[in-house]
């Protein structure tokens, strides 16, 4: 998000609420920290390829799709943004401010990008009913730290078997999802 989109009224983010969005600020989202299912650094080849060669891994936050509220501009010049749960988005015909993309390898995972700036704001998994958002897009404190970092700090490295960069940070490394796959710690 640019500086305007990243400015957040800290009183608005009290308790467990977290907000994020695209670079231009047109598409935003919010969720409560107590809904977080998983928070990890993902090293899968899908994430590597879809985020670009400059990102060997991403900070992913998985939530039930019903718990992620997206604010998307409505069509029309004076219309207020529409608020809807990620689970309510028709991925075959997303709202105009979003573009949807699924790969043939994992057609059940659909990436949603802002149609203006191209930022990938979420990934909806139709198989699990979850939505992933990325830590890099979350609101930040004036000094640059992610607001409520303690609530979304990664607990592991997932899909580490395909890592491009060795990480030695004390977090567990897994071949798939944490506690659901083989542990790969060195």
Automatic annotation (TrEMBL):
Transmembrane segments: none
Keyword entries, A-Z: Lyase, Metal-binding, Zinc
Chain ranges of the CENP-V/GFA domain: 18-150
Classification via Pfam families: GFA
InterPro entries cross-referenced by the UniProt entry: CENP-V/GFA, Mss4-like_sf
Organism domain of life: Eukaryota
Similarity comment: family membership: Belongs to the Gfa family.
Protein name, entry field: Mss4-like protein
Gene source species: Rhodofomes roseus
Phylogenetic classification of the source organism: Eukaryota, Fungi, Dikarya, Basidiomycota, Agaricomycotina
